[in-house]
Write a structure and sequence with these properties.
single chain, 24% strand, alpha/beta, Rossmann fold, 6 helices, 33% helix
Length: 192
């Protein structure tokens, strides 16, 4: 299973033209481009990355695809997610996507960390509209990756009253990425 493709395939049916979405770890821009296409010309993607070079690469790809006007490019820590998303969008988010780990073909010492990822995931989860989707793809093969995935697993365990939750990984591979799919229950209106 290619987990990035699986995450995109699963969220595609939950995003409509005009929606607000978040790529909380823009990286190489694969999810950003996917979301920008899905939201159409009247939608908006917040694409966040702590590395300015990553945001510049994403901007270049968006420009080539003629999608840059659909994306708010934000350089910063995803833990500060709330400061990037306009107040009027904070309870209207259709989808938020996270890829936890390091940016391929870059400095592998720059990785997501539980101290920033978990607050970002919590914040994103409160911004989802009823029926909104959160995907978290955790790569565990780097220093701190397993601890980050374990923290996400612990957090998701307590969210079943607010979310329908599914989890995938390759159980035959101890370093398999882990993908969580979380859909906010339509009856859920309380903040998480």
């Amino acid at each position: 299973m290619h987990f990035t493709v699986e995450a995109q395939t699963r969220v595609r049916d939950w995003i409509a033209p005009g929606d607000i979405t978040i790529d909380a770890t823009a990286g190489n821009g694969f999810d950003t481009l996917f979301l920008a296409d899905a939201v159409g010309p009247n939608g908006l993607v917040y694409a966040i990355d702590i590395q300015p070079a990553a945001i510049e690469r994403v901007k270049g790809k968006l420009t080539e695809a003629n999608l840059v006007d659909r994306v708010a490019l934000c350089v910063g820590d995803h833990a500060e997610l709330e400061s990037f998303v306009k107040p009027e969008h904070r309870i209207r988010v259709a989808c938020a996507m996270f890829n936890l780990g390091y940016l391929p073909l870059s400095d592998k010492s720059i990785v997501t960390r539980v101290e920033s990822s978990l607050p970002a995931i919590r914040t994103a989860s409160t911004m989802l509209r009823p029926g909104g989707v959160l995907t978290i793809l955790a790569y565990v093969g780097h220093d701190g990756g397993r601890a980050e995935a374990d923290a996400v697993a612990d957090w998701t365990t307590g969210q079943s009253d607010q979310f329908e939750i599914e989890r995938w990984n390759d159980s035959s591979n101890p370093n398999s990425p882990i993908l969580w799919w979380m859909q906010r229950r339509k009856s859920s209106v309380d903040a998480i």
